[in-house]
Fold this sequence. Notes:
Distance between the termini: 37 Å
Order of helices and strands: EEHEHEEEHEEHHEHEHEHEHEHEEEEHH
Bound molecules: zinc ion
Oligomer: single chain
Number of strands: 17
Radius of gyration: 21 Å
Number of helices: 12
Largest sheet: 7 strands, mixed
Amino acid sequence: MIAPHGGKLVQQCLPEGARDRYAGIPAIPMSAIAASDLWNIATGVFSPLTGFMDRRTLHTVLQDNRVESVAWTIPITLDVSASIAERIQAGREMGLTDPQGVLRGLIQISDVYPHPKDERCRGTFGTLDARHPGVATVQGMGEYLVAGTVQTFGEKDPSLNAGYRPPAETREYFAKQGWSTVAGFQTRNVPHRAHEYLQRCALECTEGLFIQPISGWVKPGDFDPDVVQQAYRLFIKELYPADRVLLGSLSTAMRYAGPKEAVFHAIIRQNFGCTHFIVGRDHAGVGKFYHAYAAHRMFDQLPPLEINVLRFHEPFYCARCGSIATEKTCGHGEPQRTYINGSDVRDMLLANRTIPPHIMREEMVRFLLEQQQQRPLFSDGVRG
Ligand SMILES: [Zn+2]
């Protein structure tokens, strides 16, 4: 079994019953984004992080893409307003409440400091452009950051969907299945033919596939994470051998940080026990902010990760090949090729255009059309 990033799976969960002992403890309110990351820290998803970042750690992440001696590219922080920051002192232990006001965990406070939003945006997204959804998220956060080691009560966030398993459980599952190699697949889209092609390529050379859609915040207009989760449940059941694929979910916000988020996503999958991670074209990108293959190059600029990065070029449908292919496998020209991506699928759904079977399987199209009658298919982007 591959070791977690940094060598040890962080486990900072108190028994569920311990919550009662802390009833009435002065608490810091968390945003929905911070609340999901509290669970990610405490259950080892973000190993080796043990808490929300202090100013020195944040600076090292932004400047050098590392935490201590290992690669780390994305800030993990607890933001608060100036009025709340005034009531918080380093050295104290406080509670952490979610947006519903429920006590979810504890923090041993080590630092309270002004939120360096511009430095953070430049260091994470490479831009201060407010049209970048990650920049907009950070600019809307609190003016101060609170750092410190955290603990949670219980091992599962009650707000997480039924597909969620913490890293300790997926590791156990992979071992039980006898998978010595597992490819992780990150997505925020419903399954289309291009993603299926990447998944099948991975399955040809690994023993297991772990498909883990994002279930945290996504920008307005992206597919609703719950729709994606349900679509994948159906897709996997209809198509893949049951003993070779596990569906999970990853409850963290999308940052749209392109190459830096690709590294973050790879590290997370290593913590879940994956030995391989699929990185396609413009991973975690948005608009034209990143070069299509910047994420592939980013891995070469860091100390090597233990997880193997499977770098794929963009799949398309080639009419001459009569199949999905990439420029590595198709000898024909652009006129034969139809590129496939989640935004095109969304646009076709919104325009009530027929989605052809070489873009998306008929049963998936049917599922989405049925869902569309009952609920919005796309996120409203409210951050919570
Ligand atoms: Zn071709």
